[in-house]
Write a structure and sequence with these properties.
By secondary structure, the protein is α+β, with helices and mostly antiparallel strands. Helices cover 22% and strands 36% of the residues. Strand 12 (360-361) and strand 13 form a beta hairpin.
Length: 501
């Protein structure tokens, strides 16, 4: 098991925390927490096998958050001295005093056990920052060249982003945690240019971002060599595929597409701060309002959705959240009914829901923790049902693979999703690719139309690095697992026709 980087452990975290928390207590804070963070982000971008961009940046900082006379206060900085940490506590208390007049209800935090000197490291084998830059570039170049040398491929884009995130947390209750996370996002796109008509077709790899190390690029968790080998043929078929005829179809949706629908229509909709209106000014609200808890028919009876901040290789997985809460898993939708929300300590206390389920996160020391998304996942069938089994039961339908563009309203209710590739299903068999497909529905109609789900063998953990929320804006990485699933009689649009072309 990997260990926390010695360079981070060498920082004077405990000394800084003691100075900040002691000063917050002296000034009358009923709660205070301290974070010391280091976030390192590196990226590579290749165009047609040639290096186009390379970055490697590190952000370090510390922050103090307080509850003083029932109001939040927050301050952050970069100076790592006890005096600077104490000044941050003073600034946080001063901010709380100013914001108190704007606060209608005093802040209360759900109780949480104390965790003394706890540590956690995400599951990976090789820290990508310990791999030589030349080796990383060589692997991307190798895969890019294979694509570029294939028949019918005119251009290739390759990208790799890797993140090392360290957090030290301490609070006035006595919790102290130190954590380290690694995540990677590789992506390859092949492009074919139609010079006769001035258009183009593209095909992107399906490999999801993952909480893994460099081993991900060399065969652990995904076979990039095999995927790169099949992309040119898939692209060629896509370029010649007929345009879809709009209408209602049964859809078999692959996990590589369905994860994004889960993210937008379930993940965001079950954030309690959204449901209570806290995000209305920017990220929106939710149709799944609190008065519907325990009664809203979210989907069909085979729909079971959980939140989980502990799943191995999950992008949102941590041992402890940014409020010192030990993480776990919890139910959001059970047998098609809304039964829970994602919570931080303030949301849990406000509604008398017991403990937080560990969903507080800040993307840097410069930002205050918000209630952020867990790894929200649709659970597979206990039966050994394959994707082919789902397809075989469809007379007229479409098999949807890979994510692409999407849109959804501010209440996470009306939506439209496209994909990477689509296959016509005729009499239980795949019958060639289609183009220009989008499926459209409301959230409850769509999940209510789910007729069957695949077994554990179809389950894949997808996700994204760039979920945005908050003012000032923050970005969080999150995974969503799901099996293949069959949806009946879904409205399918032709994107060319809808675009007026």
């Amino acid at each position: 098991m990997a260990s926390i980087d010695a360079a981070f452990l060498a920082l004077p975290a405990s000394t800084l925390a003691d100075a900040a928390l002691s000063r917050a207590r002296e000034l009358g804070a009923s709660h205070a927490d301290f974070r010391l963070e280091r976030v390192r982000v590196a990226s590579l971008a290749l165009r047609d096998g040639q290096l186009a961009a390379s970055t490697d940046e590190e952000d370090r900082g510390l922050s103090v958050r307080v509850v003083h006379e029932g109001a939040w206060g927050f301050a952050s900085g970069i100076d790592r001295t006890p005096e600077a940490a104490a000044r941050l506590a003073e600034q946080a208390v001063a901010t709380a005093k100013l914001s108190r007049v704007l606060s209608s209800d005093p802040v209360e935090l759900a109780a949480e056990p104390v965790y003394s000197d706890a540590s956690w490291v995400s599951s990976y084998d090789i820290n990508p920052f310990e791999v030589a830059p030349a080796e990383r570039l060589a692997r991307l170049s190798e895969l890019s060249d294979r694509l570029l040398n294939a028949d019918g491929v005119d251009h290739v884009d390759a990208r790799l982003m890797q993140v090392l995130e360290n957090k030290f947390y301490a609070d006035t209750a006595g919790t102290v945690t130190t954590q380290q996370r690694i995540r990677l996002h590789p992506e390859f796109t092949a492009v074919q240019v139609d010079r006769a008509n001035g258009g183009f077709s593209s095909m992107r790899s399906l490999a999801p971002p993952a909480g893994r190390g460099w081993e991900y690029l060399t065969g652990t968790g995904w076979d990039f060599d095999a995927e790169i080998a099949e992309l040119p043929e898939l692209l060629a078929e896509h370029a010649k595929a007929p345009s879809v005829e709009a209408g209602h179809y049964d859809l078999v949706i692959d996990p590589s597409n369905l994860w994004l629908t889960i993210h937008e229509s379930i993940g965001h909709a079950t954030e309690l701060d959204r449901a209570l209106g806290y995000e209305a000014a920017y990220a929106g609200t939710s149709f799944a309002t609190y008065d519907k808890l325990g009664s809203l028919r979210y989907g069909s009876p085979i729909m079971n959705v959980t939140g989980d901040r502990t799943v191995e290789h999950g992008l949102s997985s941590v041992g402890y959240d940014d409020e010192g809460v030990a993480t776990g898993d919890f139910d959001l939708v059970s047998e098609g009914v809304l039964v829970g929300y994602q919570l931080n300590r303030q949301m849990a206390a406000a509604k008398g829901l017991g403990r937080s389920n560990g969903c507080a996160y800040a993307d840097s020391a410069g930002h205050i923790p918000l209630q952020r998304m867990a790894n929200v996942s649709l659970q597979p069938s206990p039966d050994d049902c394959s994707t082919q089994d789902l397809i075989s039961g469809v007379e007229r339908g479409i098999y949807v693979v890979g994510d692409n563009s999407w849109s959804i309203d501010m209440q996470r209710y009306n939506f439209q999703f496209t994909g990477q590739r689509f296959y016509r299903i005729a009499n239980g068999q795949l019958a060639g690719q289609l183009r220009d497909v989008a499926y459209q529905a409301t959230t409850t109609d769509f999940w209510g139309s789910m007729q069957a789900i695949g077994g554990p063998g179809t389950y894949v953990l997808g996700g994204a690095f760039n979920c945005g929320k908050g003012q000032p804006g923050q970005v969080a990485a999150v995974s969503h697992g799901c099996p293949s699933a069959l949806f009946g009689n879904v409205n399918v649009l032709n994107t060319v026709t809808e675009g007026g072309r």
